[in-house]
Amino acid sequence: MGMRTAVAGASGYAGGELLRLLAAHPELDVVVAQADSRAGEPVTAVHPNLVTYAGQTLAPSDPALLEDADVVFLALPHGASAAIAATLRPDQLVVDLGADFRLQDAAAWERFYRLPHAGTWVYGMPELAGQRDLIAGARRIANPGCYPTSVTLALAPLLAAGLVETDDIVVVAASGTSGAGRKAATNLLGSEVMGDLSPYKIGGAHQHTPEITQGLSLAAGTRVSVGFTPLLAPMPRGILATCTAKLKPGVDTAALRAALGKAYTDEPFVHLLDEGQMPHTAATFGANSVHVQAAADPDSGRAVVVSAIDNLGKGAAGQALQNANIALGLPETLGLSAIGVAP
Q: Residues with Cβ < 8 Å from 102, sequence gap 6 or more?
């Protein structure tokens, strides 16, 4: 019997992906899978792919049902985790996939989420300098958002190495529809999305903007300026982020690639592709991996870094399990794969 594990929000896309990954994890056993409107239904009625959970029923969203778990994953809508987290024991490992505890700036949280700020937990991006050690000693971990993961891991090494300017970072990133959660909405219907590519929450209005700024500022050691434009792509999952920043004098493609290579050589889930090879969302499908490529554009004087992730993998459930492994002292890669499913 492994460590008793609970997933709150198990009927959503991120919760379902967590259940899928946990089904193959040798040290974590799911004893409680909670839902809200789907409580009382079989897990396989909500997630037909999860046949290993046949016979298990989704439990109601009752914090008391989480009391006996050693590990608790909160895969809940933004703003819903804080109240539940307050009821949990200090010795329980809690990984929050929502945004409740990600931001250090309370004013930024209240501006974008319009709720009181509940506090700040250890930020669960192991590849950022110093974060892995903090995660290893934590019992409360704020899992990063999907867009911030793709952008921060693309640009952090360049900012840390002083290869690019901090005052004019521009990001255009396209996400699959699962990034919006499992909800009925006209703009997410197949008939609306297929054959279409559309921007949304432009002009700094997206709630991930302050988290992107926070992560990149941490890497740069100073406040950065970020312009972020998200796009909705006609695919169920995946993010492709194109990130640009002004080059410092004398910096070329080789220098950019050298900085990324140095940062990620020993990282199991971040892969600098061979020169000339471009990231594809399909290549990271179902994996906890990040694919990155960089080039210097001499005409515009800008660095261009492209990253691809699975927004439900490294952008949510995969990274949550990676963080849990680290905090529990388990091998970081346990139950996770860097190999995508293709075609």
A: 120, 121, 123, 142, 144, 145, 211, 214
The rounded mean pLDDT for the chain is 96
136: how many CB neighbours lie within 10 A of its CB?
15
Task: Tell me whether residue 243 is one of the annotated catalytic residues.
Answer: no
Q: 163 and 111 in one domain?
A: no
Residues 166 and 286 in one domain: yes
Range of the domain at 191: 147-311
Whether 85 and 187 share a structural domain: no
Cβ-count burial of 259 within 10 angstroms (0-12 exposed, 13-18 middle, 19+ buried)? buried
Taking only the tens place, the pLDDT of each residue in 74-99 is: 999 999 999 999 999 999 999 999 99
Cα gap 277→300, rounded to integer Å: 21
Write down the catalytic residue from 6, 142, 146, 169. 146
